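Re: How this chain folds, sequence and tokenised backbone to follow

Filed under: protein folding, tokenised backbone structure, sequence and structure records.

Contents: The amino acid chain and a row of whole-number tokens, matched residue for residue.

Body of memo: The sequence and its backbone structure tokens, given next.
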Amino acid sequence: MGKVKFTSILLLLLVMGTGGCANDIRDRVDLIVPDGVLEKPEFVNVLADIQLIEAASKNRVWRNDDVEKRLEDAYNEVFSKHDITESQFKASHRWWWNHPVAMKSVLLEVTEKITQLEIEAR
């Protein structure tokens, strides 16, 4: 779970880095998510699962020569678990990152979710 801590810290640094964004309509917190984009709670859950997969990959949990195939399978399992497609995830990811203040809030919630999972795993 040490890699989860690292991922949490990395996400927190990303959140802090978005604080310097200029005032822009995209910086509003009260955004209306368009059709085809995951709502915030669902996006937080998907992104947390993705972060855990990436942490496992970087921690070399998989002792397999075909890490790319394992990653692809793991991503597909997340998409299936949340009943979304890869294109829905990519569109949502792009939309949320184009709204820095809202994304900051998403990243904070992802960090909290991963931290809570780490506490529960102890």
Q: What stands out?
A: The CA atoms of residues 49 and 78 lie 7 Å apart. The first helix runs from residue 2 to 17.
